[in-house]
Amino acid sequence: MALVNDFDSIIFDYGGVLATHQTDADLAKLARLLGVTTDQFSELYWANRAEYDRGALTAAEYWMDMLRHSQKNMDAALVDKLTDLDSASWMHFDEPMWDWIDHLRLAKKRIAVLSNMPRELGEALKTKTDRLGAFDHVTLSFEVHSVKPEPAIYEHCLTGLGTTPERTLFFDDRIENVQGAELLGIRAIQFLDRDEVLEKLR
Asked: Which pLDDT score, from 0 to 100, does residue 202 have?
């Protein structure tokens, strides 16, 4: 595995790297609100998620489409409830990773976050936390209308960070996003086990 000292810049995915995936309890609450099983919810949730993350669908359009596949009536208050709970479910921060980001900044590394996420989650992170302030650059899919593994979103992040692909290390839990980065010459590592990754990199 590559050593961090071999790179000038480090790019992190958000969900699954800096924040944990949604818990079973989170999924159960969302599924219950929608009136479906958790398995049905997961299938509906991811069906149009990329377009929601891209900013091509509003929160109302995204959730209303899911509601049409459930037994629930379409209701603006329910959409708001689903949206708020969804955002909260992606804000379980993995603190050892944030401690490591502080360490990297002290080591004069340039740090970025590159994430597929909808506007509502991005705005919640900006207004309800100071987490995004830890980065030299932030690329969020809804702001650039591109999602990983499309080349444009990586290129936007590299430009904003002021780095070259070969001097950049990228972490993402999804293999297709790792492969997308590698196609541009970025050194990418699939992030599956935080303790294992940190131990090897340190």
From this structure: 65
Dist CA 191 CA 141 (whole Å):
20
Residues in Cβ contact with 179 at an 8 Å cutoff, skipping those fewer than 6 apart: 149, 188
Alpha helices in 49-166 (DSSP H): 49-54, 59-68, 76-89, 95-106, 119-128, 141-144, 151-161
Say if residue 119's pLDDT is above 70: yes
Closest CA to 131 of 14, 7, 47: 14
Residue with tokens 């596949």: 69
Q: Tell me: the pLDDT tens digits for 150-169?
A: 999 999 999 999 999 999 99
Q: How far apart are CA 77 and CA 136, in angstroms?
A: 37
Distance CA 147, CA 50 (A): 7
